What we know:
2 domains, MetI-like, Phosphate transport system permease protein PstA, phosphate transport
Amino acid sequence: MSSTTFQPETRGVVxxxxxLASRRKMVDLTVxxxxxxxxxxxxxxxxxxxxTLLWRGLVALDWTVLTEEFRPTRYGDDTAPKGGLVHAIIxxxxxxxxxxxxxxPIGLLVGTYLSEYARGSxxxxxxxxxxxxxxxxxxILIGLFIYQLVVLPMGGFSGIAGxxxxxxxxxxxxxRTTEDMLQLIPNTLREAVIGLGAPKWxxxxxxxxxxxxxxxxxxxxxxxxxIAGETAPLLLTSFGNNVxxxxxxxxxxxxxIAIYQQANSGFPxxxxxxxxxxxxxTLGVLAINIIARAVLRGRN
Length: 300
């Protein structure tokens, strides 16, 4: 009878080399510290911007800035009455509200079409490509487009032209966010709703939109935050003025243009008001985000 030597089964057993484990640990620590360093650098610049805005903007921020219109000044004359930015604040609110109201429904519908009806289709790919190009296009090109399409036929600058330029900027942001948020919803949820006999449009409006509401709202807020500080397209469309105006067929003031003009005026008091305007835009966008998140938290 021959004797056999028992050998343990070694197939499927992975032996880790100490050198390999050490190298992986070093790579992990390196990536971790690089990520932390990048985060700290980003927070440093963000804090620097906020502190600079508070330091320079709070100096001239008072009720005069919020209630008075622009007033001309003379260099070295400290006794001249200081103007404000109420005309620019009102103009920005009007144009931003109209631009958001026009661009949001269009972007929402296009994003819904790309996610729910045009997956893998040629038309869907073309629309997605155009949206991505528009998302990365310089805003001055949008201003030139509206200048040719609206300003020249109307015979002058107008608030409605500025609002249309801002609406075009809003559309691709909302399209991308809506499509991405709807695609995160599991298909099993859609199948369950369709299996209950609900039509597709009702499944989208009552189930998908509700599930993706927070993400879609975040995209809308991102669009509002972007157009709130746009200057280049408004220079070619609404142009700006120094008085409060509610007439959308005429030139209309806005905070970005007022900041641009007064920051380049060379007068110290107007430069201080420009810093206050920049602070107002930042605080306004921050307030919108805080309110929206509080509302969404209450819904959840």
